[in-house]
Structures are given as structure tokens and as C-alpha cells.
């Protein structure tokens, strides 16, 4: 449907170039490709025909005129500003740093005055001396002395040589077993809902 409308507008634009106003009906617009609406699509550029309107004797006239419509072109508009808007611009400010200056300053002294200096007084000196004290009589002192203890040396021991000993090997003995064998065992029975 959109393609049909576009084709109609294009054909109308070509018809306007003739500078004359032509009156014509919908039946013979002069462009096609759709063959008609009554029988389906037929190939070729034969024209547009409205099949239902041809046999009834009704026709519709369309007048096409060329009009020039002025289109507004955008242009810059000056807008008055009341006052300038302050904008903060970051500026790199160097940080202050300490400056060390060495100066010799002379301070005037009105008059010299005596200063009392403490003098350490003599103090006694402690001397360490070794003094021998005489002992009236000697007393016995026990000194531990290591006494050698004899350790027995290893010596050879005679061991009896092992010899073969006959051992009786058990053999199977037939035992009568009653058939069938009944094993008595209690088996729990689970009831639904009680476990």
C-alpha cells in the first residue's frame, strides 16, 4: 500500500511539470505495474484501473496544481544575556615552601655580669682490695674420683641347629547334614505409616 501511494505521488510530480491542469479520472492515471484491482496483479506498466468503477458510469476528476510553499530556514537568533556568568577555571598555584636563611645577629649587652659556675666538691673514692683471712685449722674436703667399672665383653654362644619336625595334617571327615536346613530368624515387617 505504501509503495502504491509513493508511486502516485511520483506520477503526480511528473504531471505537474507540464504546467497545464489536466482533468482526468482515477481510471486512467497513466502509471501502472499493478494492472488493476479487479482481477489481481498483472505484470507490466499498463496502468491503474479500478475494475468495479468502470461499468457503472461514475468518474472522479482530480485537479493538480503546483504551489510553492515557503519553508522556514533556521538561522541564529541573538539572545541578550543579563550579566556574565562567573566560571571558575582551575589555576595551578604553587604551594609555599620554607626558605632557610642563615644570618649573624649581634645582640648588644648592656654590661657584663658574673656567672656562678658550680664546682664539684671532693667525694670519697672506693677502692677494692683483696684481703687474706687466716683460717685456724684445715678441714677435710671430699673430691669425687671416677672409678673404672669393668664392662663384660661379648662372647660367642652356641645355638642348637633347627631340624625338621613331622606335623600331622588334618584331613576332612564326612558329617551327615539333615536336608533341608531350617534357619530360624526373626524378620521385622514394616507397615506403612508405622516406621
Structure in words:
This protein is low in regular secondary structure and 195 residues long. 10% of the residues lie in helices and 0% in strands. The two termini are 77 Å apart.
Keywords:
single chain; 195 residues; little secondary structure; 2 helices; 0% strand; signal; Cuticular protein 13
Structural class: little secondary structure
Number of helices: 2
Instruction: Determine the fraction of residues in helical runs and give it as a percent range.
Output: under 10%
Name the shape in a single word: flat
Low-pLDDT regions: 31-55
Give Rg in angstroms.
Answer: 69 Å
Estimate what percentage of residues fall within beta strands: under 5%
Give the end-to-end Cα distance, rounded to a whole number of Å. 77 Å
Mean pLDDT: 75
Series of H and E elements: HH
Give the tally of β-strands: 0
The largest pleated sheet is described as: none
In brief, what are we looking at here?
With 195 residues, this protein is low in regular secondary structure. The chain has a domain of 53 residues.
List the helices and strands and how they pair.
Blueprint: H1 2-16, H2 51-54
Amino acid at each position: 500500500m505504501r509503495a502504491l501511494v509513493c508511486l502516485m505521488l511520483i506520477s503526480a510530480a511528473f504531471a505537474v511539470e507540464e504546467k497545464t491542469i489536466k482533468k482526468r479520472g482515477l481510471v486512467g492515471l497513466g502509471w501502472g505495474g499493478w494492472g488493476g484491482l479487479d482481477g489481481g496483479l498483472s505484470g507490466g506498466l499498463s496502468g491503474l484501473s479500478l475494475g468495479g468503477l468502470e461499468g457503472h458510469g461514475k468518474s472522479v476528476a482530480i485537479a493538480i496544481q503546483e504551489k510553492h510553499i515557503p519553508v522556514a530556514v533556521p538561522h541564529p537568533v541573538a539572545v541578550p544575556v543579563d550579566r556574565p556568568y562567573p566560571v571558575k577555571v582551575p589555576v595551578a598555584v604553587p604551594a609555599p615552601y620554607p626558605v632557610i636563611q642563615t644570618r649573624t645577629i649581634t645582640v648588644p649587652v648592656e654590661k657584663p655580669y658574673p656567672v656562678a659556675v658550680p664546682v664539684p666538691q671532693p667525694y670519697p673514692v672506693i677502692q677494692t682490695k683483696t684481703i687474706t683471712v687466716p683460717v685456724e685449722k684445715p678441714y677435710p674436703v671430699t673430691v669425687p674420683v671416677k672409678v673404672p667399672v669393668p664392662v663384660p665383653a661379648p662372647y660367642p654362644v652356641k645355638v642348637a641347629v633347627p631340624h625338621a619336625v613331622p606335623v600331622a595334617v588334618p584331613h576332612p571327615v564326612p558329617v551327615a547334614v539333615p536336608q533341608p536346613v531350617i534357619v530360624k530368624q526373626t524378620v521385622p515387617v514394616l507397615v506403612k505409616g508405622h516406621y
